[in-house]
Amino acid sequence: MSPSHACSRIASALCAVAVLATAGCGAASLAPVSSASAAQWIDAGGVTYHRPHYAATRAMASQIRPALFEVPYLGGPVILAPKVYFDFWGYKKYGDPDKVEPLLTGYAKVMGGSGHNNIETQYYQETGSTKMYIGNAAGQFGGSWFDTAAVPKVPTDPQIAAEALKAVAHFGYDPNGVYFVATPPGHSEADFPAHWCSYHSATVQKKKTVAYVYFPYVPDGGPSCGASIVKPPAGESAVDEGVTIMAGHEIGETITDPTPSTAWDGPGGEIADVCAFNHVANDKFGKKKYTMQEMVSDADDSCVQTYP
Q1: Domain span including residue 151
Q2: Which one of 7, 26, 167, 203 is separated from 39 by 20 to 30 angstroms, measured CA to CA?
Q3: Contact assessment for residue 26 and residue 33, using Cβ atoms and an 8 Å cutoff
Q4: How far, in Å, CA of 27 to CA of 39, rounded?
Q5: Position 137 in a domain
Q6: Tally of domains in the chain
Q7: Is residue 200 within a helix (H) or strand (E), and if so which, with residue range?
Q8: Residue 3 placed within a domain
């Protein structure tokens, strides 16, 4: 991506909420059709992918705090029955010193049915006069895979999109899927963690949209991406706190706005942007606790940890 783009890497986190909110709406299983939405899609490196929606660092989050805690609906589709799949690209080759993989998969196995994930159930997609709301069933963990292929020292957006398609080839295509591409320590995209901590985007496979998350090795981001923000819960270290904060952030935003800025998004950002690093706490997920940020509840016009 050239620095001349409106959503350049230099200002990525702020631009995610200031510029992407102007995109148009696209269909869930097709490439976008409106001119505004089409302008957000990029062909590069042999793949077509949507301009990413970035999660701001702690420093930048304070600059985008809105006056009102609400997110408008732009008319596009959401993910109604979420399932999350993890591609741990290069973890076997380059290591996982902070045990991100077991932390992520452990969290994903218990998040379904939780009060925190219930926040998303107030969001919907609308067809004519029919509203279909996001579900929060148990068992939202779809599986994990260790891709042993070499990871570039500094991967690019097209390479991450291509890896997401590899994950689809491995797991199979799931229209309700959120495919995580997690890269190992020392192998993250440029401008992480100086300007952002993670992102979500979409790519296309045979005219079907694939929603995916790029998850760099978040502990490498240190305090900028959530480390040592509160006293960690049992089984989680201070350096790892950003892992579950950012995972919850991206899952919530991906299922409510799978193709960025076509469903739930606005001038203040998506449902996690508005509350980024706001009142972080150790939330209960069954018998376990994980460090999480608040999310927007449109019903309450506020940032909340659980709903209703």
Answers
A1: 9-304
A2: 167
A3: yes
A4: 15
A5: yes
A6: 1
A7: strand 198-205
A8: no
